[in-house]
Write a structure and sequence with these properties.
The protein is an alpha/beta fold. It contains 14 helices and 16 strands. The protein folds into three domains: about 120 residues, Rossmann fold (3-Layer(aba) Sandwich); about 150 residues, Beta-Lactamase, CATH 3.30.450.40; about 160 residues, Reverse transcriptase/Diguanylate cyclase domain (Alpha-Beta Plaits), CATH 3.30.70.270. It has a six-stranded antiparallel sheet with strand order 8-7-6-11-10-9, with helices on both faces. A five-stranded parallel sheet has the order 2-1-3-4-5, with helices on both faces. The protein has a five-stranded mixed sheet with strand order 13-14-12-15-16, sandwiched between helices. A hairpin with a 6-residue loop joins strand 6 and strand 7. The protein is elongated.
């Protein structure tokens, strides 16, 4: 992907010990050569960072040159730069002393320039190989870290935001986002943006992003290293000029994401002028993340299909979208048997909307139904994958929280109350609903069968509504 870059060599040390014609030989051999007449210490940071190897000339393997080699090798900034010492007298013993001091290679006088070139090439190959190994390990660790973080996310939008954030940080991108769309569509929906996490649902015109349109059309990755010169951007550049827009974009990458063989979105990256060029390894990393995004979309698609089947089978409450009461009975029995058999724990929480009757009386039943539907969607969005939510009554919901004790269930309800308080209910002007909750955790001495859970949870809910400080109560064992 990147153009050939001439290896950059620094020539340092004793000028008198330099073989005749060395610099010309190296330049003709394709190297970019800079001289360091006063040793290595005065080098600027930019010169150190751009150097690929150092050739140090010296007459003898004395204490001075051995000390220079030792200091060079001990310096962190030179840690992965090969050092070759040439022109020393003293034969194999001198060469051995220099290598022991930290030189990567050494040649005794007289120096054969062809042999020097071969040794330089070998050192540069080793350096490239070690860098590739380090980059591979870094990418592997980064991917592991990303997928660990993704596995802890609860919702699809959280996963998308994690993916774009981690890729944007890892590659130092000016822009990284995930766009939901499909071939032939004029608009896309941006669901996650690295540089502006507050954007979660933004409609965009795809004609402004030719790389996205091309990726959708060809169903192949599109990599543009220079946006200001590539013909794909000819029309959009004219559009920028007509609108007097100064667009600081250097490179662009659009990776199509497929669900069941059809493009469903694009993983979209851009860099600015002055940013590092996107490498083949960068593209491979981004493509791996794009495939992870595809899995998320596939899971969402599968979940939607399950939802449709459940609605048709009467397993869901059609107003709120959560499970029906019959489905709750079945799930609670299954969870109880699993917990009893394998000595696991779980919690049942019954939540009730406070003063919901007032909402219906003040705003009407239609608005009340919308509030219930909003809460049903909010609950589904916030639950973990193994959790379960059902409509328990008119304005009550039941949550089954596997492998969660009473404290964990209380914390979840507290978080839920905070989210509801921040949620926008357009029809409820100045009347944001609040909830109370009753919690029962298994194992519990009074629970011998699944049916025993409901009376305890309902009693706890009554206690919560009757004056609990945080309007959350937990069913405790009765003292007999």
């Amino acid at each position: 992907m990147t153009d050939f870059v001439r290896p950059h060599l620094l020539l340092a040390g004793d000028l008198a010990a330099r073989p005749e014609g060395l610099e010309q030989f190296l330049v003709r051999g394709g190297f970019l050569v800079d001289e360091v007449p006063e040793g290595l210490a005065p080098l600027r940071a930019a010169e150190r960072e751009s150097a690929d190897a150092v050739v140090l000339c010296g007459r003898a393997a004395d204490e001075g040159i051995l000390e220079t080699v030792g200091v060079f090798r001990a310096a962190v900034e030179w840690s992965d730069i090969p050092l070759i010492v040439i022109g020393v007298t003293g034969g194999s013993e001198a060469v051995a002393s220099l290598i022991s001091a930290g030189a990567n290679d050494a040649l005794a006088a007289p120096v054969d320039l062809g042999e020097l070139r071969a040794r330089l090439d070998r050192q540069l190959d080793v350096r490239r190989y070690l860098r590739e190994v380090r980059e591979t390990l870094r990418s592997r660790d980064l991917l592991f870290d990303i997928f660990q973080e993704v596995s802890a996310a609860l919702r699809a939008e959280e996963i998308f935001q994690t993916l774009v954030r981690r890729v944007g940080q890892a590659l130092g991108l000016a822009h990284c986002s995930f766009v939901l769309t499909s071939p032939g569509e004029a608009f896309g929906r941006v669901v996650a943006v690295y540089e502006n996490p507050s954007i979660r649902d933004l409609r965009v015109e795809l004609s402004r992003y030719p790389e996205i349109e091309e990726a959708l059309r060809t169903e192949r990755p599109v990599v543009i290293q220079n946006v200001m010169e590539h013909p794909l951007f000819a029309q959009i550049r004219e559009r920028w000029a007509a609108q007097s827009l100064e667009v600081n974009v250097r490179s662009a990458l659009a990776l199509p994401v497929f669900v069941q063989g059809t493009a469903a979105g694009v993983f979209f990256l851009r860099t600015r002028e002055g940013d590092p060029e996107l490498t083949t390894r960068d593209v491979a990393l981004a493509d791996t993340i794009a495939q992870a995004a595809a899995k998320v979309l596939e899971n969402e698609d599968r979940r939607a299909a399950i939802y449709r089947r459940q609605v048709n089978a009467g397993a869901l409450d059609q107003l709120t979208g959560v499970a029906s009461l019959d489905a709750l009975d079945r799930r609670l029995k299954d969870e109880f048997e699993r917990a009893r058999r394998y000595r696991l724990r779980f919690s049942l929480a019954v939540i009730d909307i406070d003063q919901f009757r007032d909402v219906n009386e003040k705003f009407g039943n239609v608005v009340g139904d919308r509030v219930l539907a909003d809460l049903g969607h909010l609950l589904q969005r916030e639950l973990r994958a193994p959790d379960f939510v059902a409509r328990y009554g008119g304005d009550e919901f039941a949550l089954v929280l596997p492998e969660t004790d009473a404290r964990g269930a209380r914390n979840f309800v507290q978080r839920l109350r905070s989210l509801i308080a921040k949620h926008a209910f357009p029809e409820l002007v100045g009347a944001v609903p609040a909830i109370s909750a009753g919690i029962v955790a298994y194992p519990h001495p009074e629970i011998l069968r699944a049916e025993d859970l409901f009376p305890l949870a309902e009693s706890a809910l009554a206690a919560a509504k009757g004056g609990a400080t945080d309007r959350i109560a937990v069913a405790l064992a009765s003292s007999a």
